[in-house]
Structures are given as structure tokens and as C-alpha cells.
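Newbie here. two chains, one complex. Structure please?
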Amino acid sequence: MGLDQRQKHDKRKRTKIRLSKLYSYACVRPSFDVAESPADVGGPGFSRVVFCNQAERHRTKPFKYQSNYVSTTKYNIVTFLPKALYEQFRRLANMYFLFTAALSLTPLAPFSAPSVILPLAFVVGVSIIKEAIEDWRRFLQDKNVNNRKVKVHAGNGEFLDVEWQNVRVGDVVQVQKDEFFPADLLMLSSSYPDGVCYVETMNLDGETNLKLKKTLEATLELDGDDEFKGFTGTIRCEDPNPNLYSFIGNLEYDGSVLPIGPQQILLRDSKLRNTQYIYGVVIFSGHETKVMQNAMDPPSKRSRIERKMDSIICFLFIILVILSLVGGIAFGIRTKVDMPSWWYLRPDDTSNYYNPDKASLSAFYQLITGFILYGYLIPISLYITLEVVKLMQARLINQDILMYNEETDIPAHARTSNLNEELGQVDTILSDKTGTLTCNQMDFVKSSIGGVSYGVGITEVERATANRMKKHNKELNDMALNSADQAADGEGIEMIERPHVKGFNFSDSRLMDGKWALEEKAEVIQMFMRILAVCQTVIPEENDEGRISYEAESPDEGAFVVAAREFGFEFFKRTQTSVYIRESDSLGRKIEREYKILNLLEFNSTRKRMSVVVRDQDGRIYLFCKGADSVIFERLSKVGKEFEEATKLHLANYGDAGLRTLALAYREVNEADYEKWNDLFMKAKTTIASDRDSMLDQTSDMIERELILVGATAVEDKLQKGVPECIDKLALAGIKIWVLTGDKVETAINIGFACSLLRQDMKQIIVSLDLPAIKSAEELHDKSTVMKVSKEAVKKQLISGQQQVAVDGGIDTVFALIIDGKSLVYALEEDMKELLLQLATKCAAVLCCRVSPKQKAMVTRLVKEGTGKTTLAIGDGANDVGMIQEADIGIGISGVEGMQAVMASDFSIGQFRFLERLLVVHGHWCYKRIATMICYFFYKNIVFGFTLFYYQAYTTYSGQTLYNDWFLSLFNTLFSSLPVAAYGMFEQDVPARVCLEFPSIYQQGVQNMFFKWDRILAWMGNGLIGSVLCFFMVLGVFGQGAYRHDGQVSELQVLGATMYTTVVWVVNVQLAIATSYFTFIQHLFIWGSVALWYIFIIVFGFMSPSVSTTAYRVFTEALAPSPRFWIAVLLVTVASMAPYFTFIVFQRRLAPKDHHILQELMYLNKHATDTEMWFMERKKAVEKAAFGFTARVDARVREIRKRMHGNAYNHQNIGNGGV
Amino acid sequence: MPSQGASTSGVNNGTSTRKDSKRPKSSAFTQQELPACKPLLTPKWVITIFMLIGVVFIPIGVAALFASRNVVEIIDEYQTVCVPGRYTTNGEREQFIQDVNQDKHCNRTLTVSKLMKGPVYVYYQLDNFYQNHRRYVKSRSDKQLLDGNATDTSACKPEQYLSGDLAIVPCGLIAWSLFNDTYNISADGQQVTINKKGISWKSDREHKFGNVRPQYFPNNLPRDLNGSLIGGASLDPNTTVSKPFIVILLNEDEDLIVWMRTAALPTFRKLYGKIEQDLAAGSTLSITINNVYNTYSFGGKKKLVLSTTSWLGGKNDFLGVAYITVGSLCVFLALLFFLVHWRYPRRLGDTKYLSWNQHASAN
């Protein structure tokens, strides 16, 4: 095994290329930036010493550093109990119950101590167990990470697999391609002889482009296992800190002291890419690594509803205090005034609790008794029931097969269950781009060559738009749509099914299989292909089957080379100086051609283009150039402009379809000109000065002129499956979407188009600092001026944006705000925040580009706090962690790699598209369930609690309860909690499909229709009515006389048991009326609870009188044989339901809500029988969507109508907008 | 749009996927697609429900009202008339009651207006008497009542011990304050037997009260205590502190058992006995009351009640009236709903009421 690998390595080494040759800019950069040698190493804050390859020296102090064991759990065995208990009793209600439990041990308690303490212990116990299980899961996840294996030098040049947790500071490790670094490493060498390696820092900053790291020259030679036999060295560096982008330290090696900068540091949780292996020394391990230093403690989030619930509990608490006060005062007065004459109470010989001589003291004691007694107003089981219900909801979310991602085998996962209902109230989604909306995979889909557009493959947006358009066709029958739209449906040109090639999604029979040679402009096509194949920096790799695969720095380039290969221009070999292409000529023969690379003019964001200067086999020198269309078009020669108009048109169409476009051009350079230019270029390249970059730019610019346009490419930044549909649905549900991306403005806009966030007729307000004024200020290196100018510029742009919105804003005009990270720095400052938010909320789409993870979190906070609405952040990388934790709800996409986002999230899903179901179905349901459930909880406790209070009035507020102690303590747990739990778990107002078909019903949650104060108070009022009816009707029905045929009169036991029976019936039937979805579970629980009460009272009644006391045989002997009991229960139940029932039937009749009508339509089976009406309603049932393809289609239809009516335009432009 | 069918058919495919797959187990339960009944309140149902309630409730109400009306009840409030007229205030009356030397028998004459079919139940009714006061309710020892010797009778304070160390059985305020007025009834000169057997609950007699001999009970003797606290005459003149002999065992003392089952409300009736014969209409009842129980200190009324029962128990119009009210209210609501429905018809599932269509018309 080991031998095999060794051989493989050797084989690879032969094909190695010195990348430094390839990259003119990045690698040969003179090392002046590390020259600022850290003078303060060894000083305070820079005390760390690492003995390389001598990990054993780190076993003792002072060099004993933290182990590489990483723990993200909240508790450990010791802290668990105190911490968890603290968490529990932080809740107001639990605190109150703890207080009552303590008081219940005194004679003040109106009932026995266990009946108070047991429910509390149960409630708190279950919550703590739940906490423990959740933490255990986190522990397992940590364990998984800690047990990953990495090769560690064990001495004598031998490397052994070691678990991550056992990697120590000072260890030399070997990390293989596509592995994560186990700790922060100093890189010593790599598989490349010049000691570079590629690192993907997705998990740190979300950027997917690879970063180049480079070792110190001195350690270059340490590139084999054996080299480490006697290797030693000492690193002195900074102490652990969270700064990802800086590192200060030096390495004492081989007798010299070498400065180390961030260039040499490989950070934990980043990944080795495109490099076979690297060797490195562990500097920081475990929690001292930069990534862990960055980790915040996950904030404990509480849903809006739960927070509001607290204020309701406060409200009830105030009522409770008022009731106790009333009771206490009334009791005091009666004790003072009346009690002395009640000889049967022996007022002459009493305790302080009932002492007429100390009435105020007795009143105070009574107040406390009342305080405990009326505690039934505050539902003790609410929290626990909520937790159980939410856990079940979370399970249902986890098990939803429609949110299971088949390809990656990832189901949806609710990681915290206390935000389920918040999912139903989301107002704004803040989304990451790469990995969330897009796959970070580029597919070559279209091209425009010589003024002809090729490629009939259509993007997701186009497909979706076309489908939507088709449905509009009925309406637009007369307004014949341009044939271009039909072509988009793939009807125009025959499509041939072929196996999918990664990076290539192009189909057009005119170009494939060498048929291009038959096209009219075959030479132009040939040149186009050649540019694709040659003008790149990709490294080819031949695998065992002889097939070439490519290692590209950016996925775009990979797509180009793949495309060229598929067209028959296979790039198969690269040497230090040449690129080899296997070309098929016009006759279909394969010819190998060599192109000598003379110069490579790299891409950067200012140049927006890249070129190669090559010499072909015939000795002619060409410059091949690809770049942004605007840049290329201004560099064309007169003859080169032949296809400019046609290409421009195609580019516009591609752009609208969300494709990323580049223009290709070339020029032939004569020998003499080239030599002259090359001298200049080499001079610039070897300059060691700070303006080297701009010199290179200038010289490059000199040759990139007089170009001849060949065509343009269109690459699709492949969207994740179902993204446009999902975004559309979310738009229809009235949810706003902000995209926060680390990408460039252009890319972001592209993706904006691709996922229908943007469209042609939107007015884009771009706030950016790419302004000449700023540039010139920057060149002066005057930081304060730059800041001042920048801030002014941003402010100006924001204000002008607002003015624009104010002036142009109409029904049909929508705006999109695009702002870049640099501007955000200023826009997010305290005094500008409001301005930004105001503008942003008026825009239909907001794209923030080039934002740092921290800015993502700041923007999220701005939206969350500025609008006061619920925000949801979704992302997949470690760079999204901040925003995921900041938002009200954080959603992590569990992708192939990187767990940070998921670990920080509240919910994780396999793909963005599942967000639709998560919000619109589960969110909607959970919101309604929880909202109604909480209201109902208050209702039932008010019904029950107030009967206790009314009874007090008849006992001079002495604290005597009507019910048996056991009845009291079991009410909340046994006879009324299961049905409401079932409601909370399974209730559906409308089925899932209707939620999805009518997404605007989601707005019920956003507008919080079911948990506003009026609704809560209405439920409480209903509870009050229920309690009055229960109490006074039972009193009235029983009266003083006989309640049975045998002359027996009712007393405390009979009255208590009867009233309790009616309360059990009333609260359960009430829930049954409120339920609109009865499965056997609901039936079982609702009717089961009522039945359970009867069973309980029978069984309990047969227990020894010392246990059952007042309930002894009360049902079998006293109640059951009495017809009055039964018809009293019937009367009270029906009468108590009447107000609510009347209200809902008249509400449904006169002012029906959406879900009422939808229920009726479902009931009438209209969705099956009257599909047309159903479809029409679905179409109308949308919030006014400002983005998404529905909005896009609407805009198109509007445009067409305008043209038809206005007749001002000629017909040829119609429909061109989309394809 | 994935239909319900599609997702359930996914179940079958699911089983064939790889073993360690995290694919959720799909069932009607986990996919929240259990067969469910979704009752919908259509106008037809609403009217039916309201009408049905009306149709069921009104007859029950009428029947209850009839039952109540058929009950013959004679109530005689005697706390004032049974005290010689010269005692005008409650304070004076209280003093009269507490004077052991006064004869407190009083004769009342009542006329039976309607035939009272036996059994006729005899009740006493007290008013403004807080048997449900927490101090009072708790003041008993169930254990002692059952087996006579309870170690802990602290709940009974201050009626726990007599003269410091003599355990009172039954202890506590309830037993101590036992109602002790007695009634003697004759109809048209004929002595009427009042059956005192079977007036208490069987379970009480058998399981809550044991074969326990009362000790130092009753003890509310006027001469032993401060006069102001006395309940009335001696319950049993033969019992004294020095002579605590037994009268009847606790489980045979049904008056006590009835009294010990505390009333829920400050106004209550308790069963005194049963007259197992008919009382003919027009017959005159002459009743001798031994009026000894002190309700005068707190101004409570005392009433003697003779009542027959129906299948629903005693006289009480509330049940019937409530049923008729609720029933007719429902009929009214049914009509109202019908009228609303007829005047402003709304088709079931009328899409124009959907919020989006409302917005449209508002614009």
C-alpha cells in the first residue's frame, strides 16, 4: 500500500510543472512584504515558542499548549446540572413555580406539597433530559471531527496515521490532496518543487477560488518523508488570536532566523487543493487555532412567539397578583369584621393564618396562599408541552421525504427545535451565493461565433420562464410571441442526447462532432476554439484510462478547456514553455499542435481580461485574449469589428438568461513589434518596486490592442437544482431575498439574473467605490482622505438612489440595489445605516457583493433590528456562520464539505430548494400550530383557574379549593395536555399542496395574524366566558336541594367533581372545535383525555379513602346514578362552546379568511373538478412579487402589451429580451 | 407539484436504496398524510347543529321543568319565630339559646298544599354558615374517624384535647359544631316517623367512619366553657367530662356523618331524615322543634324543609330554564344564520372572498 503510493507520487512528480513560471504575477512576487520583519517577536503577545518535530518538548510547562481536541458542547459532566438548572429557572414561569413549590412546604399552601412539586420536577426534568440529549449529539459530532486521521511524523522518517485530537503542537504532519488541515500549520514543503500549494478557504471566508500559499525557500528541500529524520527548528510567533489574515513570527532553522508571514500559514478547516501533499508543522492546535478563536458561542435563540409568550405570562402574572390581592384584602376584611361571630371556627383560639385580631397578617398570609392557588392561571405544562411538541415537529421536519436530498443522501435536519414556528414568519431571507444558490460549477452552454449564436441548451431560468410564458399564451394568443421563445423550448433545433460532461452543457448539432467545418465561417470557428484551448492557465492531468482531466484555478477556465476538448480541440499537455493541443481539422483529422507560450498576461479585476502571447508551429505570433465584453470591444481594430453588433445582441440575451459572458479576440503580432514589447514587459516584470503591478498593467495594455473579435462565450454558473422555482415561490409568498456574496459585482449581477432576482426592466442602483476619485485618493496612500472621500461618495450614491426611487417609482418600475463590500463598510456606519436600510427596503432585490463574513453578519443585524421583522440567513460555508448566528433563523446547507455552517445553524437542509417547503409548508403549519396552541393553553388555564377564584368568593377567600388535590395537579398534565400536544404536532389548516400552490397564505404568519394581542385576548375572553359558565351553571343546576332521586344534596365533593368534569369536557371539546384536521391521533387524544378522566375518577375513587379523600367513590356512588349530573355536563359543555362556535361560524360566513375558503374549495374537491378556476386562483394568489420568474413573465407580458397597444415599436424586438 | 400519491409511492423505492442511507423512513405518519377527517362548517352543517341542539335541549328543558314543578316542597324558616317575641335582637336571641334553663321547644304548624308522595325528605337549611372555610374543612382527622386512635390530630386544633390531655373523638371543629336542632312531626295529630337510617352515604358509613366510640364528645357543654362560644344545648345531656360514656358508635351516627361531609356553599341543606309515607294534601303538620343551635351570633337563618323528589331530585327550575334558554338561543342562531345566509348568500368556496381578490377589488 505504502509502496504503491510512493510510486504514484514519483510518477506524478515527473509531470510536475513549476507553477511559478506560469503565473507571472502571483508567484514571482518579490518578497518585500515579508521583509517588514517582526521586531516584536518574543515580546508580549508574541510569546509562543514551537519546537518543530519535537512535540515531546511540549508536554511540560511552559510549552504545554492546548491539545487538538475540540469541543463545541455546552456542558460537561460537572457543569451540566448547575448550568442546565440555571437555564431552566431563567424562565419566569419556572421561577414562579419554584417559588410556589418552596411555599407549598409551609402550611400556607392551599393544597399538598407533592401536588405542586411533582409537576414542576417532571417539567424541569424532561427539559433537562432534552438538553442532555442535544448536547450528547454535539459531543458525537465533535468526536467525529476529533477522530479524523492525519499522517504524523513518528520519528525516523516514518509517518503514521494519528487521530486529529492527538496531534500536538510541534508535530510534523503530511496532509494529502483534498484533506482538511488538522490544525494551524507552518507549511514546510509541498509536492510542487517550488513549494507552493493551493488552499481552499471556503470554510473560513466562503471564497471558492483557490489561494496560493508558498513555503520559505529554506524549507523547500524537506519534501519527502525521510527528510524529517533529523529535522529540528524553532518557531517564535504571536499568541493565539482570531485574526485570519495576519501572522507574525519567525523560524529559527539551520542557523538562521527567517520571518514567517501569513503566506506560509495553513489554517485549520481549510482544505488542500490541486496539490498532492504538503508537509507542515503544527503551530496552533485545538481551540487555539484561528478558526476556533473565531467561533462564537452559539447564541441561544428564542422565537418571536416565545418572547411574546413571556409578556403574556407577565400579563397573566399581573392578573394573578391582582386576584391574590383581591383575595387577601377581602379575606382580611371578612376575618376582621365577620369572623369573630363565627363561633364554629373558634375565632378565640386560632393560628395567625385566621386571626381576627391580626387580620392584616392573616390577610398577608392569605395573599400568598392565593398566589399559589391562582397559579393555575399560568400553565406550568406549557413550556414542557411546547418542547415536546416542537421536538415532534422537528422530527416531522427531519423525516419529510420531500426535503430529502437523494444525491447527497442528506435529509433536512432541525438542529434546534425552538424556532419551528419562526419559520412561518420569515420576512427577509439573506442568502449566501456560492454553494447555496449556485453549485460553483461552470457549464459552457452557449457561444456566439462570427455573429452566429450557437447552443440550444437552456438554463433553468429560461426553462422556467418559458413554461410560465406558455401558460400566458392563452391570454396573449393574438400577440404572437416571437419564435425565439419557441426556440427556447428546444423545438427549433434538433437536440441529440449525449452523456453529460462536467462543465459542458452545450448542444448544437451545428458545432458538434466536427460539423463546425461545414459552417459558413469555419475559420472563425476554428480560431474561436483555438483561443478557448490555448488562452488559459489550466493544468491537464491524464488519468489511468488515458482521459484528460483538468485542474483549473477557476471553474470558468475549466469549462472553456472542456468545451474546447468537446469541440475537438483537446488540450492535453503543458510544459514549462508550451501548450499542446490535439486539433481536428476541417477534414476531421487529428493533428497535434504545439503553441509556445511567450507571455502570459494575467487576469485581474482592473484589467478584466487575460491574454497569452503564443508562437504557433508556423512561427507566427498571436495574441489570444479573452475578457469582459466592454473591455474587449473598446480594443477592437477597425477590421475586427465585423461581428460586433451581432455579438453585442447575443451577449445581452445571454446576460438576461443569467449567463456569464466573455468576449474572445485575437491579433497577429509581427516579430519586430513583439520583440520591442517583450523587452518592456520583461523589464516591468523584474522591477522590484511597489508600482510593479501597475507597470505590468500598462505594458500589457500596449499589446492588447487592435484586436479582432471572434465571438463570445456564455458560461452558466450552474444554479443548484430548483433554485429559480424556489426563489419564485418565496417571492410569491411575499418574502424578500437579499443575496450576500463574496463575489465581484459583475458575477453577483449575473447570478441575480440567473436566479431571477434581477431582470432587464429593473432599475439597478449600484453603490460602489470603483470611482476615479477614490482611486486617485488611494494612490496617494492617505488613509484618512480615502475614508473621507469614500464615505462622502457612498452617502451621495445612497441619497441619489433614494431620489431616483422617489422620482421613478411607480407600480411597474422596480429597483434593485447592488452594493459592494467596500461601500458597505461606510454604509453600515451608525449614521448611514438608516439611509441604507430605507433605500434597501424600497428595492425589490438587494445584492451585496464582496462582503466579508463580518459584514454579512452586520447586514443581517441591520435588517433584523432595522425592520424588526423576522430574518432568515442561509448559507453553506464557515463564512456564513456569523450571519447564520445573527439572523433570527439560521439555515445551513449541508453540502459535501464543511460543517461549520451546519453546526452553527438552527436548521440544515440539503439544498436551497428545500427552503420553500421548509418555510411555506412546515413554517406555516408550525406557526399556526404553536400560535393557536399557546392561545389555547391560556384559554384552558383561565377556564380552570378562574373557577378556583370564583369559588373563593364563597369561602370568604379562605383558600379552600373546590377540587381534590389530585384533580388539581393532574389537570394540566393528564386531562388537558395530550390533545393540545396532538394539535401542536399534527394540525393542518390546509394540506401541504395547498400551502405550496397558494404561497401567499404564508403571509398569515408574516403578519402574525394568529398571535396578535387581539387574538390572544379574545382567547382569554373565551376562557373567561367558559369559566363563568362552568362555575355558575353548575352551581345553579345543583342548587341547595336534592340533586338525586334519593334526596341527597350536593356538597363540596359532589360539586367539585361535577365542576371538574365539566371543565374537562369544555376544554377538550373546545379544542376539538378548533381542530380542523382529525386523524385517529386527535380523536384518540381528545376523547381519550375525557375518557381518562372518567377512568381516573373511578379507579381513584376505589382507592383507600386516605388516598382519595374527597374523591372516594364520588363518581360511582354519588355522581353516576344521578341524571342531573349527566345532563348538567351536557348543558355546560354545549353552553360554553356556544360563544366560540357562534363566533367562528359567523366569521367564516361573513369575513372568511383565506384558509377558510381554501378549505371549502378542497372540501368541494374543486382542485380536481374545476382545475381552471383552481389555476386562475393560484395565479392570483400571490403577493405582488417583485422578483422571481413569475414577476419576470409579468414584466414581459406588460411590455408586450404596451407595445401592442402603443404600436410605437416595430415587432421585431418582441420577445428578444429573454433568450 | 408532487402529489400526495407521489410521495407515498416513494416509500417503495426507498426500501431498495442503500443500507446506511439517511433517507427518512417514509410513512403516512411521517409525511403528515394520515387519513384524516376534515370537518367543514358548511351552512348546512351549522344550521343542522344549531337546530339539533335546539331540538334536543328544549324537550330536555321542558321535562326538567316539569320534574321540578312536580316536586312539592314546604319550607319553614324558624330561627326567629322559635324564639319568644321579647327577644328582638340576635344578641338577645343568642343569650336565650345559650341559657340552659330555658325550654327551647317550639311548635310550628304547616299545611300540606299538595299531596306529597313518600318518601318525603326532611332537611335543615342553614344560611351564612361557612362550612367551606378552609380552617373548618381541614379541622378533622379522617384516620381517627375510621379507627379511633390517630397519633396525629393536630389538624383538629383547637378541638383536639379536652382539658389539656383528654383526646376528643371525633376531634375537630366540624364534629364539635354538629347541628343539633331536632324535629318532631305529626300529621293531623298522628305521629309521623322520621327515618334517620340511610340518610348518609353508604361509603362513608362503611369506609370512612369506623366502629369508634366517641370520647369526650359532645363536649360543648355550656357550663364548662365561656358562654359566648357555646353551640347550643347539650347534645346529650348525659355526657359530661367526668362521665364520657358512649351513646352510639360513629358509623351509626348518621347525623354526624352527614354533617361531616362539608357543604360547598355557605347556604346549604342537609338531610335530616326521611318520612316514608305520603302526606295527604290539606293535612296539617304540627312540628315540634327543639331550637338549640346557635346561628344567631352570625345572623344565619335556619329552615326546615320537607320535600319530595322527582327523577331529577328536588325543586330547581334552573336546569329546565337553562336548557330551554340554550335550546331556544340555538334555534334563534340557526334562524339568524339562515337569514344571514339567505340575505347575503355566499357560495361555499367563493373565491371572491380570498384576500388577493379582495385586494384587487379594493384597488
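Moderator note: The first strand of chain A starts at residue 48 and ends at 52. DSSP finds 42 helices and 33 strands in chain A. Thread marked as resolved.
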